[in-house]
Automatic annotation (TrEMBL):
<dbReference type="Pfam" id="PF01422">
    <property type="entry name" value="zf-NF-X1"/>
</dbReference>
<comment type="similarity">
    <text>Belongs to the NFX1 family.</text>
</comment>
<protein>
    <submittedName>
        <fullName>Nuclear transcription factor, X-box binding 1</fullName>
    </submittedName>
</protein>
<dbReference type="GO" id="GO:0008270">
    <property type="term" value="F:zinc ion binding"/>
</dbReference>
<keyword id="KW-0677">Repeat</keyword>
<keyword id="KW-0804">Transcription</keyword>
<dbReference type="GO" id="GO:0005634">
    <property type="term" value="C:nucleus"/>
</dbReference>
<keyword id="KW-0863">Zinc-finger</keyword>
<keyword id="KW-0539">Nucleus</keyword>
<keyword id="KW-0479">Metal-binding</keyword>
<dbReference type="InterPro" id="IPR000967">
    <property type="entry name" value="Znf_NFX1"/>
</dbReference>
<dbReference type="GO" id="GO:0000977">
    <property type="term" value="F:RNA polymerase II transcription regulatory region sequence-specific DNA binding"/>
</dbReference>
<keyword id="KW-0862">Zinc</keyword>
<feature type="domain" description="NF-X1-type">
    <location>
        <begin position="35"/>
        <end position="56"/>
    </location>
</feature>
<keyword id="KW-0805">Transcription regulation</keyword>
<feature type="domain" description="NF-X1-type">
    <location>
        <begin position="4"/>
        <end position="26"/>
    </location>
</feature>
<dbReference type="InterPro" id="IPR034078">
    <property type="entry name" value="NFX1_fam"/>
</dbReference>
Length: 130
């Protein structure tokens, strides 16, 4: 175990200390609160994880499953937040007109993890053929 208490030495069997007068630089594996992916910043001992964009790659797909795309987690999150804001604005307009609206799904972390691509014209055409 390295002095950080979080990581093991990755060198092959060797004499002497694992780290020669330097700090552990292995990636932090603590799960991020907002997405669950590992922090991945260089080891920061017991200090809180730095607020950095998650660079984990995730696959998004549309509702019907025809379109698939690999995105960086933080970019997918930003896209989802942008779409949620647009949808929220639309629902607020409906509320101002006196309509009842359901907004709980717009603000849950569970929904963020289920961010999807939008179906395109080809998806709609395939759906009509069914």
């Amino acid at each position: 175990m390295l002095p950080c208490g979080m990581h093991r030495c990755q060198r092959l069997c060797h004499k002497g200390d694992c780290l020669m007068d330097e700090a552990c630089k292995q990636p932090c594996t603590t799960a991020r609160a907002n997405c669950g992916h590992p922090c991945m910043a260089p080891c920061h001992l017991s200090a809180p994880c730095p607020m950095t964009a998650c660079k984990a790659k995730i696959e998004l797909q549309c509702e019907c499953g025809r379109r698939k795309e690999i995105m960086i987690c933080s970019e997918a999150s930003s896209t989802y937040q942008r779409m949620a804001a647009i949808s929220m604005a639309s629902k607020i307009t409906d509320m101002q007109l006196g309509d009842s609206v359901e907004i709980s799904k717009l603000i849950t972390k569970k929904e963020m993890h289920q961010a999807r691509l939008e179906c395109d014209e080809e998806c709609l055409a395939l759906e009509r053929k069914k």
